Amino acid sequence: MDANKDQTSILGNAKPSQAIVKLALPATLALLAKAVYNIVDTAYIGMLDSDIALTAVGVTVPLLLIMVSIENIFAAGAAVLAGRQLGAKDEEGASRTVTTIIGLSVVIGAVLCVGGILFIEPLMRVFGASDASLPLAKDYAFWMFVAALANLPAQSMNCAARAESSVKISSIAVITGALLNVVLDPIFMFDWGLGMGVEGASLATTVSQFVTFFILAWFYLSGRSVIKLHLGSFRPSWKLIKTVTVIGVPTAVIQICLSVASSLTNIAAAPLPDADNIIAAYGVVQRLILIGCYVVMGFMQGYQPVASYAFGAKQEERFHQSVRFALKGSLILTVLVAAAYILLSRPLILLFNQNPVIVDCGRWLLISQVALYPAFGLCYMMTITYQTIGASGYGLFLSMIRQGLFYVPFILVLPRLLGVTGIYLTQPAADLLTILVCLCSIRSMKQIASANMNRLPEGD
Asked: How would residue 37 be classed by pLDDT, with cut points 50, 70 and 90?
């Protein structure tokens, strides 16, 4: 009970900036460990000395992003709603929300697993697999679909842990899985082990992700959490599902748009000279970009529970302090990430492949992706804030603009006009428009937050 009080006191009593940093550090570490899954797979696959293998894994990037987006629909929505309920001293309501969402995540994970395996070949074709890369892409994607059985409920438990500030167990679970993946990858992939090649990399990741799931399940079932999981609390209702979905969709849409953008970029590259090399380079770049995304997302995972709790508790000044700190922090982090990637672009690509064409193309792709990277931090932070304050409609709009409404027209037009240079210019053009829209939205965000907070019912 004392531990539970300490967790909620961080959300309600500590200085907002201190609370955000305290929660963000382990969350960021956990997400960076999660990035190891993709980076280690790509690095080991690069050791197979097969550009086609690297291309095949690059084709699965859109699938990875779609899976993450589906995980986030319920998980992110449940985290915000449960955070509000904890702020209003409604622990029973928070337990009911989380138990129900985890149960639904198990069902959805099973549907994704079966459906993905049944339609694996047409899905890989849609994502840009060529005749040469299709067999390896199918091998890699198969175990990704199996992993959905563990990933969806694990992500829901992970978000619930953040909502109650239990970030330590979340970090332990994800880091343990990541370290296990580093050990299992070479054992499953190379001839001195099981010799499974690309398929072995995916299987190692899947095994590791199931371990993460079991650690989180133990935490909740052992009764150590503030939010309790009870079979009697599993009460799916249209109202709960609608509320959680409306809150969570903007975060998920960001991932869906990333997936669409990635898939369209592969398709735009297909008619160009050296298409397989461009797609291979883009696959490496996307995995590197995920690290930058996870740095920002980790910081936002520290911000979200603090802001949700303050909003639910109707602590207006504390809420606005959290928003200001998160806004500054997201901009600083994205500038630092962009600077690091630009300065180290060539050696970073060389870590995964030594083909001069892939290295040169990958270098310029990486630089173009982060040239105006603060657009991502600003847009992501504001999307989460609009979710938290009950304005998910505008949050949905913001989640779509960067990699959807702005990126898609540019990627459809510029490569046809300018070749590979058009691919390089697409992201900076979309980011510039995103920054302009976000800057115009800051004032209304503050006004809506104050108005909606005053409409909340009084807590117990």
From this structure: low
pLDDT range class, residue 30, cuts 50, 70, 90 = low
Q: Which residues contact 156 (CB under 8 A, 6 or more apart)?
A: 71, 74, 75, 78, 98, 101, 102, 105
How far from 36 is each of 179, 295, 342, CA to CA, in Å? 8, 13, 21
Strand ranges, E, within 173-275: none
Rounded distance, CA 357 to CA 361, Å? 6
Cβ(179)–Cβ(33) below 8 Å: yes
Asked if residue 56 lies in contact with residue 198, where contact means CB atoms within 8 angstroms, the answer is: yes
**For residues 95 and 233, is the Cβ–Cβ distance under 8 A?**
yes
208-221 residue pLDDT tens:
989 999 999 898 88
Structure tokens at 351: 């870590």
Q: How far is CA 26 from CA 162, 219, 252, in A?
A: 10, 17, 22
Question: For residue 269, what is the DSSP state?
Answer: H
Contact 382/236 with Cβ under 8 angstroms? no
**Could you give the CA distance from residue 332 to residue 152 in angstroms, rounded to a whole number?**
31
Query: According to the model, what pLDDT value does residue 457 have?
Result: 67
pLDDT of 232-251, one tens digit each? Answer: 778 878 888 888 887 777 76
Mean pLDDT is lowest, of 21-30, 99-108, 144-153, 213-222, for: 21-30
Q: Over pLDDT 70: what percentage of the chain?
A: 93
Per-residue exposure over 223-243, b if at least 16 CB sit within 10 Å of its own CB, e if not:
eebbbbbeeebeeeeeebeeb
Cα torsion 117, 238, 158, 166 to 10°: value is -170
Shortest CA distance to 101 belongs to which of 218, 212, 208, 248? Answer: 248
Rounded-to-integer distance, Cα 59 and Cα 336, Å: 29
Q: Are 140 and 199 in contact (CB under 8 A)?
A: yes
Task: Return d(Cα 219, Cα 76) in angstroms, integer.
Answer: 19
Q: By three-state DSSP, how is residue 81 classified?
A: helix
* Structural contact between residues 181 and 211, judged by C-beta atoms closer than 8 angstroms: no
Interatomic CA distance for residues 138 and 430, integer angstroms: 32
Q: Give every CB contact of residue 72 below 8 A, 6+ residues apart in sequence.
A: 155, 248, 251, 252, 255
Residue 390: left if φ>0, alpha if ψ -120 to 50, beta else—which one?
Answer: left
337-379 pLDDT per residue, tens: 999 999 999 999 988 778 888 899 999 999 999 999 999 999 9
440: which residues sit within 8 A by CB, 6+ positions away? none
